[in-house]
Structures are given as C-alpha cells and as structure tokens.
Amino acid sequence: MIAAPRDEAPEAPEAPEAPETREAREAREAPVQNETARVEAFSDGVFAIAITLLILEIRVPPTAQHDALRLALVNLWPSYLAFLASFLTIGVMWLNHHRLFTLIRKSDDGLIAFNLLLLLGITWIPFPTALLAEHLRGPDQRTAGWVYAGSFFAIAIVFNVMWRYAVRAKTVFDYINAAAITKQYALGPIMYAVLVIVATFSGVWCLIVSVLYAVYFALPPSLWRRKDHRAT
Amino acid sequence: MIAAPRDEAPEAPEAPEAPETREAREAREAPVQNETARVEAFSDGVFAIAITLLILEIRVPPTAQHDALRLALVNLWPSYLAFLASFLTIGVMWLNHHRLFTLIRKSDDGLIAFNLLLLLGITWIPFPTALLAEHLRGPDQRTAGWVYAGSFFAIAIVFNVMWRYAVRAKTVFDYINAAAITKQYALGPIMYAVLVIVATFSGVWCLIVSVLYAVYFALPPSLWRRKDHRAT
Amino acid sequence: MIAAPRDEAPEAPEAPEAPETREAREAREAPVQNETARVEAFSDGVFAIAITLLILEIRVPPTAQHDALRLALVNLWPSYLAFLASFLTIGVMWLNHHRLFTLIRKSDDGLIAFNLLLLLGITWIPFPTALLAEHLRGPDQRTAGWVYAGSFFAIAIVFNVMWRYAVRAKTVFDYINAAAITKQYALGPIMYAVLVIVATFSGVWCLIVSVLYAVYFALPPSLWRRKDHRAT
Amino acid sequence: MIAAPRDEAPEAPEAPEAPETREAREAREAPVQNETARVEAFSDGVFAIAITLLILEIRVPPTAQHDALRLALVNLWPSYLAFLASFLTIGVMWLNHHRLFTLIRKSDDGLIAFNLLLLLGITWIPFPTALLAEHLRGPDQRTAGWVYAGSFFAIAIVFNVMWRYAVRAKTVFDYINAAAITKQYALGPIMYAVLVIVATFSGVWCLIVSVLYAVYFALPPSLWRRKDHRAT
Q1: Which residues make Cβ contacts (< 8 Å) with residue B164, sequence separation at least 6?
Q2: Which of A26, A54, B177, D4 would you call most buried, defined as having the most Cβ atoms within 10 angstroms of its Cβ?
C-alpha cells in the first residue's frame, strides 16, 4: 500500500470502519500543517528581504565632471562582486531551506527555535557583505573576509544541527534516506571552513569561491529527490 | 463525537439528509478562512520585514589604517547585542502571534484592529533598537533603555488585550483551555515591567535580560499544545 | 439553492449527469483562483513593506551631553505623529483592499492593472510621510501637507475606480449589494478632499485627522459582511 | 475527455479500478505542488520588496527658507519619473512572471536556477534607477541610461531563456500554444534593445519609453489566456 506522507500511520490507521470522516480528519490536521506553512512563509519573507536589502549597500556615485561616472561605476566592482556572491549564497540557502522543509513532516518547538537561529544568520548577511565590499582593497581585507566567510560557516553549522535534530525528533518523512542526506549536509561546513582559509589570503578570492560554491549547490542534487515510493 | 475545529456545530449540523454538498460548504466557508489567512500573511510579512530591517542599523566602519578594523568591529558590540536582543524578541513575538492564531477560529473586525495595533508595535522596534545601541555607553543609556523596555512592555499589553478579546468574542476554538492560556499570557507584561526596572540600572543588562526572556519564551510551552481531543 | 461563490453558474451547471469529475473541475479552475491568490499575496507584500519602511524615516538622535536625549526624543514628535498617521492609514487601506478582494470572484487584466496603480500609491506613501514630518514645524508645512493629503486623496480615487471597474466587469460575487458598497466607497475621496483643505491650515491637524479617519475606517463596516445567503 | 492540467496522464491513469484513493494521490503530489508554490511565494516577496525599496531613493528636501520647498519638490522630477518607470516595469515583470508560472506544471532544478537569476536582475533594479535619477540632468546621463536600459534588456533575455528552458524541459502544460508564446516573448529583448539605443540620445526619453513599454505590456495579452479546453 502507498505510504502517503501526510498520514501518520500509527496514529490514524485508515481502517474502513473508521467513524472519522475526511472532513473531520482534515480539520484535525489542518492546524499542524498550517503551522509548518506559516514557518515556511515567515522564513521565505526573511530570505526574500535579506536578499533584496543587499542592493542598498551599493551607493550611487554623485554627479561629477564629464565622463567621471564610467570610472566611478567601474571602481564599484567590489560592491557588485560582494552583491553577487551574497545574493547567490542566500539564494542557494533559501533553496536548501526549501528542500529541507519538503522533507519535514511537521514542525515542533525545537525545529522552530533552530529555524529562528538560522534566520538570524540570514538576516546578518547584509552586514558582512557591505563590510567586505568596503574593505576589499583596503589593508584590513583579511579581517573583513574572515567575518564574511565565518558567517557562512556558522550558518552551515546551524543547517547541519537543524537537520540532525529533525531526523532525531522523527519529524521527517519515513521514506527518506536520512543518512545519505546527513552525509551530504556535512559537506557544507567543510566547504565554508575552506572559505575561511581562502579569506586569509584574499578577499577577492573569498568572494569568487563563494560564487562557485553557490553555483555548485544550485546544481541538481539527485539525493534530495523523493524516491518513487509508488512502485508496488 | 469529534469536535472538528472548522465546523461550527450550531450553524452547520452535519445531518445525513443535509442537501448541502461538500463543494457548496467549502465555497461558503472559503472567504472566512481566507480572511484569517490573509491577516496572518500580512502579519508574517510585517514581522519578517521588521526583523530583517534591524541589520540596517549596524553601520560598516569606514576604511582606515592597518588593523584598525578589528578594533572598530569590536567596538560595535552594542549594535550586535541590540540586534540580537531585538531579533530574538521579535522572533519570539512572531512565534507567539503564530501560536495565538492557531487557536483562533475566525477573525472579526475587532481582532483585526487589535492585530494592527500589535503590528504597529512590531514595526516600531527598529527605532528603540537603534536608539539603545547608539546610547548604550553614553550618559543617556537610562532614557534609551526605558524607551526600549517600555516598547516591549506595551506590545506585551496589546498581546494580552487581544487574547482576552478573542476569548470573550468567542473566536477561539472550543477545546482550548482558555483560562490557562490567559494566565500564562499575563506573565508577559509582568516580565517586561521588570525589564523597565532593569533598564533603570543598566542598558547592557536590559539587553541581556531581553535575550534571556526570548530564550525562555522560545522553550516548548506545553500549554499551547492542542489537547488530544480524538480520545473518545 | 445556495449560490456557491466559486461556481460560475452559467458556465458550469452542476448537472447530475455531468461527465466532469470533481478533480477535473478543480484542476480547470485552479489557475484562475491561483491568479487571484498571487495578486493578493504580492499586494500583501507591498503593503507590509511600505508600512514597515515608515520607521526608517525616524532618525536616532546622536549621543550628546547628559540628559539631552530626553529633549531630543520629545522633539521628534512630528516623526512619531506622521509615522502613526501613515501606519494606520496604510493599515486601513490594506484592510480595505483585503475586504474588496473577498468580494472579487476572479481577477482579470484590468483589475490587475488597477491594482498595480493602487500599489504605486501605497509604495509612494513613505515619501510624503517623511516630507511632512520634516517640514511640520517649518515655513512650508502647507506644501508638505498638500502632498501628504493629496496622496491619500489620489489613492482613494483609485480604490473607487477599481471597485466600479470590478462591478462593471462582473468579477464580483452575485450575492453582493454592489450599489450599497459603491455608495460607501464614494465616501473616501470626499473625506480625503476635506483632508486636503485641512492641510491648508495646519500640518499637525492634517495628521490628527488622518489618524481619526483611520480609526473610523477600522470600525466594523457591517455593509462589507456577506449577507447570509444560506437562508432558504 | 478533459486533459486536467494537474494530472500527468501517463503516470496516473484515472482508471476506475485504481486502488489509489484521492487522499493518497493528493498526498503524493502535494510536495511537488508545494515546491512551485514556495518558489512563487519567494519570488513574490523579492518582487514586492524591490518595487517598494524604490521609494527610498527619493530623498526629502531639508527645511529651508519660505516657499523653497515647492521648487525643491519640482526639481525632484527625475526621481519621480525614474520611480514611476521602474515601478511599472517591475510591476509588469511581476505580472509576466506570474503569468509564466500559471503555465508551468511543475518546477525543476533548472527552472529554480533560472528563476534565481531572474530575481538577481529584479533585485538589482533599484541601483540603476537611483543612478539614472541622480545623473538624468548631468553630463553622464548617457552612461546612466545605458546601465538602466541594459539592466532591463538583460532581464528580458533571462525571461526568454527561462521560458524556452521550461518548454524544452516539458514542465509546461500540454494545452498551451507554446510556439506562439515563445514568439511573443522574443519581443521583449528587441524592445529593450531599442531602449538601449534611446538611452544613447536621452535619459529622459529612456524613462518615458520605459513607462510606455510597461503600459503596453500591461494590456490584456489574449495569447496568455488558456484556451477553452472544455469545448467537447
């Protein structure tokens, strides 16, 4: 028989003699599903705002003498690069968050707390982005780079802890190969630890590697796909 | 029999001879449910934006001589602490708002008005946050702390009034132990009144206590849980 | 028989011999309903952001000598009053928008275009708000007041035109007393025309009257309520 | 028979003897549909924020001597015009995005990646908007105009590539006349290429033509309408 994700088998055996009508069951389950929906909606909002606020960090060069604007715009390249790197990274983290939540059957208080911690990290990103853009060619690019790469590293850690919590709290769907995903998740902190090392040498490379990481993570992760549990 | 939350028993007795089809009933009820959904969606948006705007208050230190950035970043600790305290407090208030609305069966005009008042408070938070961060080490930290703690106190009051209104207007689900939740809600204003007193002595402790409050409120509140009304 | 809102009677007579299954009909109607949902979601987002951006206009007074902050905070009252007036007005306009859309059966291109025009007005509000706050005690408060009141007047006009368009394009539900609502809607432009006159005399009164208007509009408008079309 | 959009005929033949209940099928399909919903919700958020942030670029003129404000407000016309042009263009792009997604049956990783690229463009718009407003009457209006028109051109290209990808990946509904829409989509890049040429001659005309384009695109595109596949 089909293991329908939303049905919690031990709690609601779909016995033919069950007196509970479909309407009643929907009504009973609705608040729980709605809770997850609102957590996702709130998270989507925070991701969307954080990713859009990044543009506010790029300041328009003031009016000057003829043909000065072109040079001024070219000189803004650290801002463009930092904008691109942070946009893609937040975008991929949103994607990651979104995929993670498709695997989660229901939210509980612990998950909501971890999610809040994760959003704290996402909300924080515009600051290190502006910091690294401002100091990319200055004497303190290493410090700025560490703050930048360290922020991503911390978020990757929170993602891992959150996923492991969800697996242990049994709030994920049964048909998921949780172990394989846990293994894949562990890659994030390692990659962003490497980014911290890269930042030690060059702020520019720190941003370029961030872009490359984001492109890599955006590639189709076949592991996330739901297995075809309809077979048989 | 199961008291299915969405069914308003006296209005829509599920009589077997009822000529009303499921489609018709859904169509009839849809706008009401949609109303609550849009109130929640709008509120989620305001919470998400207010919580994300907080980062705009942390200004990037300008480029200076070598190794000056590290010190400048350390000196920004009042901004980080205020950001953390307000982020967690708004986050917990969102959680609270979200839980409260899972208990509410339908929204009416009074509830929408109270909700607007609540959102006014949430939208206001970035200002006292920036105020306290700016004045945390200055001669006027007490004034800034009062504005900060007083804002949270006012929001806690609005939460209480709103909940009591919802209980009295009978817009909450029947199976809820409303009295117990009312009692628990009353804790908020008391705690934030204490925070106002703390702010009299120290702006820093005002922020630290705010963080502790938020962590406390984020802990699983077993009272909020729906009782298992399926038993029998 | 019940005039179920979502069913377009002339198009889809629910004949017992109809070969169309419920699944098929839902699939067919889904995109249209989804269209309205996304228009509302997008509008909610714009309303929520515009209402939250208002706080950015209130600038934190810089650190100064002892006890100077209290006076500086008191002197910010024009900003608080403008914030309050615009918050409540946008809030009530959101409420209005929300109620209007519960009466709308489906969206068409004209409605979407009018909605975009309406959102243009909402997005614009933070500018006249900051303008009036800045000039409330200056020699040019009349000019600032006109821009402020004129903006609300223009939005009220757009609301009216949009509603009349929806009624004429027959995209509202049949059971609605459209004429009565049209009459009620006509009140908006008149009230905000009066506000323009008030602004001629005093910027402060322009803001106070805006607050009073918002409170008035937030009161339960029994006309909006769906008539109980279940009787018979 | 009706080709119900959500049913993937070869996968789920609606055979009368099918042992799969409606509940089971809904549960199985829910995550996929939810994925599209969250992509749309996230996109809506980004569009809504980008369109609302535009107002932050219009700076309030400071208090000055009597009657100076009126002139100062008139002198802000480049900001108003740039605000209007970008608001309408983002609005129409949202509409376009929204229509495109009503044609898309399900999202896959490639589509999500293209969508992220598209949102990168939308998020970017506030910068060229402020840039052109600032330099509209300066010696470098041509440079600013190119950046402005070039940004729209790039977004139009991404829309095209994304649509062609969706058609090729067969993620669009079957009943759509994809070739006709592809042809219509190709108009966008051509029109915005013309805008780049217009920007070479005049920044003001670049903005006026942008407004005209937006109005043109907002007109009812009969091609987008779903054909009446209920006939027969």
Answers
A1: B182
A2: A54
